[in-house]
Amino acid sequence: MEYKILPLIALPLVAAQDISCVGCIGGDKKCIGDTSIQALADDDCVPCLKKSGKWTWPCNVEGLCWCWDSSKPKYKPAMSSGLEPALTNPCDVFTEAMFNKIAPNAVHPYTYEGLCETIDMLNERYDEKIFMMGTLQQQKSEWAAFLGHTTHESAQYTAAREALVCARTTEKGSGTYCKPCDNANFDWENRYCEVSKVANGQFYEDYCDKIITPPHGCVCGPTTEVDQEALAGLMNPNFAYFGRGAIQLSWNANYIKASQVLAESADTLCSQPDLVATEPKYAWGTALWFWMFSNPPGEQTTSHIKALEGSFGSTLRIINGGLECPADPYGYHAEAVVTRLRYYCIAASVMGVRLLDLGGCEGLGDAFHRCVTTGYCPECNDHYGNPTMEPSMAPAPRVPTPRPSEWGSWRDEDWMSMMRGNTAAEKTVSVVLGTLTIVMAACLLL
Length: 446
What we know:
globular
């Protein structure tokens, strides 16, 4: 049975915004096309002004045509939650003292000031406000969900670049270089790459969909090592679109979309993707862009909307569902699910809210139940209905949260093996009981 946590208050269901051009008449309103989705001219969108036009191209393509008030800057609206804007500023809800409690070791570019400035920039631009819709409780709950994900993705705001690609940077002259690695050749304890993926004439082309080109994605291709003996095995990070920033933005298609919202030009993050690892505006902004704008294919929803509806599980499905949903205790990403839950519980405790529903990501409720009852998520005890001492505010990467001495570090493989063993034992018991039930039923029929 999947374990679910009910929201503290009944969160209203919200509808996605219709950003088509029906009713886009009068004043400075114009029906225009979004060329980042498909190539089209604004005139192609004229039929979308009529209700009957929604059944034909381009009106039948979600978000391809939208209504722009030409008296304002040309920003496509974010999908609407259907809620009214809140009265309290986001950074009055989540204070710097709270930030320091959640991430006392945060490093540049993850500054509290940079986070608040980027939020204010986006909220000034869009009618749909981030962390500023609905009730105060909804503001706090959305903050907790976002912080739970981003503290996990960024190693508690200490990692600006994906570890396997650029755990350690090399500074030479005015340049910064990375040594990409595969998992088999990476020393996780010392965070060091033994054998570079671009050594000996090899190349790196992860997170590059070469079929997607501007305006749909940054131009990308194989990246080789820098052509200097002193830089052997190193590559220029501005030629690759690996994970960076608070939500680990990756793939060439996402970089150009985020750039269209955050920068003066779509080319900004295409030509300088490492800005996401060095500038607060982009380190935070790309995470906020993904939270507000990235929607699953064919779905009219975002992580922002799902959090306001009261579903943490659905936000995980949107952010990393391909790897962590279903939350399989035997899966490669089982440890990631555990650490994500722990950070979410910490954020919820700091924000003073209960956890949102874990439904929306298959198995996440069971993972939460298993994690708490086996002792590996002590930060979540108070949210499980089993009060204990004050939960840890910042689990160190390789230091166990205090617990009985026979339990290993939450980052060691031993505890994960133990959890898997416990789960296997539970399955064995279930199989035995199921077999006995079948035998008894057969006997009754004889």
